[in-house]
Structure formats: structure tokens, C-alpha cells
Amino acid sequence: MSDTAIPHELALPGLREDNPRDFLATLGLLRIVDLLWPESEPKLYWAGEPRIPIISMIHTLPLFWSEVVIANLKELATHVDKPFVHGEIIKTTGKQFRLAVENALRFAESDHPLSKLPLMLYASYSSQIEAEGGEVEPTGFSFANGQSGKKLLLDVAQLIESIDGENLLSTLRGEGSPVGAKSLRWNPSEFRPAAYRSHDPGSKLKGDESQDYPELNVLAFFGLSFFPTPPTIRGGTTLGFHVVGRERYFHWPTWTSPLGSDQIATLVCSDISQMISLRGVDQVWRSRRFSSDKSLYFAPAELAN
User: Fold this and answer.
1) For the chain, what percent of residues have pLDDT higher than 70?
2) In this structure, are strands 211-212 and 231-232 parallel, antiparallel, or unpaired?
């Protein structure tokens, strides 16, 4: 049989289907693999019990593929043109945002393997400039509001600097150990109210840092490329979020038939009823987005269908 007749699969048991951060990380990894190795034609689906995401390809990845991923991400983060970082937070002035997009457009013409990724991210950062004040609204996933310690772009750049290919691989396999690292507030476990602590949460006791997987937070950031922020009459709105009653939820489906990036981009931004009814989609999860302690968090997920 020809090589193209035998799909190669990359199972990701370290990523949970009921975790919004893990879903974003799954999409982020698919996006990066698609850009670095387009000839492999990667597609994503869920299988097994417990269900895990699987990326299928017509060609196997290089032996040290995780090292290649990390090396390219670090080049992107430290590039002299700073193609995806226009400051420390996403929210910025209209003029600065326009200059950043123009910079990303120029970078897209470069020979960097991830040259198109910054443009995809800018569609997710914002596309709505307020009539008054000239400020660009941030993505619905962002907790960046200018306060100290809530600087998404700065945090992501520092997280990229700290990760390596070996830890990425072990984390995706479900064999890694959580470490103290910057929190992006996308993992429901990162909400730790003071009532569940024996000390003042503002005291910054050593060993009290948020324990998580920085590799997954980095991948989740690039998973934002699947969720643009289009303008509406009420301001910018991030696709993938839906209002149910008076609460705002992030909804995401899982599916059993392999889908490519373009198909997934349409699926995950669909109306909830369309998600549930589409062939191959067997579950739709949702997580409430809520504010506490001047930060935004995700609540533990529940099934929406």
C-alpha cells in the first residue's frame, strides 16, 4: 500500500475533552502542525474511553517533531519584528492595533514556517474599534485589562521562553507533572477563591503558585486563531461564546470523524443548535465565563446536549 493510504495518528491522552483550556490547546497544536507540515494534511477527531483527541496524518511527523515545534515558537516570540506581540496586553489603541496588523502582514510574506500565524491571531484579538476612545476590544478569552499580573501577551511570551520539546511531549502523553507557572485563567482549576485557602491569597507564599502545564497554556493561546472577534452593533464579540439566560458560556464540540483546520474553524463558530445537529458531532461542552477577584475564569464544564 502507498504511504498516503495508511494514516499516521498522534494520540493526545494528556488533553481532556471537558476542559476549555485543553480544547484550545488541541486546536493550537493542530494549527501549528498544519503550518509546519502541511504535506501531512493533519485532521482532528476524538476516540476511545475516556475520549481523547487524535490528530491523523497521511505522513508521519519527524522523529523530534516536538523540538521543532518549540524551536519555531521561540523564534516567533523573540523575532525582532514582534509579529504577534504589540505590547503586554491585547487591548490597545486603534492606531497601535493598525500598526501591529500591518507588521503582521509584512511578516506573513517572510519565509518563517509560522509566518501566517500572527495574522490569524490578530483576527482573534479584535476587529472592533470603538467610536469613542479609540480602543480595540480584546478577545472574550482575554483577562487582560491593564492591571498588574494580567498581561496576556507578556505572559505568553514568557511562557514560550520557559518550555521545551521534551516536556511538551510528556505533557501531551499525559505523563508530565504540573509546575508553578504563569496563569492564563483558561483552566477551571485555576480558580482558587480565598475561602479554600488557609492564608491571605495576596501574600504570595512560596509554593502557592498556580500549578499547571505551561506547554498547554502556550498551545491554547495559539488555539485562539480559530475564534475571531467580529464587530456587532453592540461591540466586538468573540465567536464560540453564547449567552444562555443571563450567563455567558464558551461552547465547544467534539466529533468522531477526522476534520481539517478549515472545517473545524467553521464548526466551532457555529450556532449551538447547528453544532449539536451536525453529523459526527456527538458531544457539545460548555463552560461558564465569570468574573471574580477582578479576573475572568472558566467554571468546570458541563454537557450542553
Assistant:
1) 88
2) unpaired
In this structure, what is the dihedral angle of CA atoms 54, 59, 61, 62, given to the nearest 10 degrees? 170
Vertex 107 angle, CA 106 and 108, to 5°: 90
Tell me the per-residue pLDDT of 239-268, one tens digit each, with 9 for 90 and over: 999 988 889 999 999 999 999 999 999 999
3-state SS track over the chain: CCHHHCCEEEECCCCCCCCHHHHHHHHHHHHHHHHHCHHHCCEEEEECCCCEEEEEECCCCCCCHHHHHHHHHHHHHHCCCCCCCCCCCCCCEHHHHHHHHHHHHHHHCCCCCCCCHHHHHHHHHCCCECCCCCEECCCCCCCCCCCCCCCHHHHHHHHHHHCCHHHHHHHHCCCCCCEECCCCCCCHHHCCCHHHCCCCHHHCCCCCCCEECHHHHHHHHHHHHHCCCCEECCEECCCCEEEECCEEEEEEEEECCCECHHHHHHHHCCCHHHHHHCCCEEEEEEEEEEEECCEEEECCCEECC
Give the CA-trace dihedral at 124, 127, 132, 138, to 10 degrees.
Answer: 0
Vertex 248 angle, CA 270 and 260, to 5°: 30
Is the CB of residue 104 less than 8 Å from the CB of residue 84? yes
Q: Is 245 left (phi over 0), alpha (psi -120 to 50) or beta?
A: left
- In 3D space, the residue among 93, 292, 66 whose CA is nearest the CA of residue 194 turns out to be 292
Report whether 69 contacts 37 (CB < 8 A). Answer: no
- Displacement of CA 146 from its chain's centroid (Å): 20
For 191-237, what is each residue's pLDDT tens digit? 877 545 444 555 554 555 668 899 999 999 999 999 998 877 777 78
Specify the pTM. Answer: 0.91
